[in-house]
Amino acid sequence: MNDTPGSAGLHGPSCPSFPAATPLTCTVPKEFVHRAAVAEVLLTGWRRVDATHFTVTAQWPRLHGFYSAVQGRHDPLLTAETIRQAGALLSHAEFGVPLGHQFLMRDLSFTVDPRHLAVTGVPADLELDIRCSDIRRRGSELASMRYEAVLHRDGQIVATGGASFACASPAVYRRVRGERAGVKSSAHRPPMGPPVPPPDVGRAAASDVVLSPTDDAHAWRLRTDTTHPVLFDHPVDHIPGMLLIEAARQAALVTLGSGDHVLTSFTSSFDLFAELDLPCRVEAGILPEDFAGLSSVLVTGRQGDAQVFSCVVNAPRDQGLPG
């Protein structure tokens, strides 16, 4: 196991030393959460409770360059990115996964409580209670894991969620990916089509729109702007999962007919690598009502004849949410 110390007050290597009684906050090392930009690191520390139970701390900014507020509330997709980062952090810092190994996300789901998402006069400090299960090893190395998270803010549960992933060494990853391994974001890719109108998908800037219209009102072509500073924080050889979740969000908003809708839960599954050099068709449709008070939208992404991801997005039919 990696002997990196874990504590709720973890400081990054650039933080100065102060007496123990002085509470200080730094982000965790960006390498542990697979980000190139320190500004995109949401986690601030972690503490081991036992071998499969951990506490992780995080902070959401009042204003994020991409995950912007929705009706005065923090963007629900900050929850997805926080959960994603927590899994990567614990894998490296507590389960000993070497830096440079690849993480293959299988699924990621979350539900938020809009009552506790309000943007206030200070950043939102969060505490995540994380429990790991289905831990599988290949020899001494972590091969795959599932984890569930409960996110607390000011003593209230703001969100719940979970994810599962597999880990691959560089050699295994090269075998899995074949000739596509290491072909980074700058490689040949289909030209981007024009964006749908930004307000239709809750966006102010066309550069943040990830859908391009087609002749079918219920289908779009995915726009993969590999220069996007958040969705492509660093070069990769496939379409990132967070871009696919963003596509699901935008498709759901168009389907529901309002870019201002507050979306409260996402259940995502990643079936295959979404390739940068192939067009990806995103389709959406409203599901029959099976939960009181919720509208559900099924979003799928296809490349050729293969489904690469799916996501069920839920939104309260009554959008008159309490503040």
From TrEMBL:
Protein name as catalogued: A-factor biosynthesis hotdog domain-containing protein
InterPro entries, alphabetized: AfsA-like, AfsA_hotdog_dom
A-factor biosynthesis hotdog domain mapped to chain residues: 32-165, 201-283
UniProt source species: Streptomyces liangshanensis
GO MF entry, a single one: transferase activity
One matching Pfam family: AfsA
